[in-house]
Amino acid sequence: MKVAVLGTGGWGLTLGRVLFENGNKVSFWTHSQEEVDLLNEFHEYKDKLPGVVFPKEFFYTTNMALALDGADMVLIVVPSQFMDSVSKQLGRVNFSNKQKTIVVCATKGILESTLQRMSEVILSNVSWLTPDRMVAFSGPSHAEEVSRRIYTAIVAACPSEESAQFVQSAMSCSYLRVYTSTDIIGVELCGSVKNVIAIASGVLYGINAGDNTRAALLTRGQAEMCRLGVALGADAHTFAGLAGMGDLIVTCLSSHSRNRFVGEQIGQGKTLDEILAHMKMVAEGVPTCRSAKALAEKVGVEMPIVNAVYETLFNGKAPEKSINELMKRELKSEVW
Question: Which of 93, 99, 287, 294 shows the smallest number of beta carbons within 10 Å?
Answer without folding.
Answer: 99
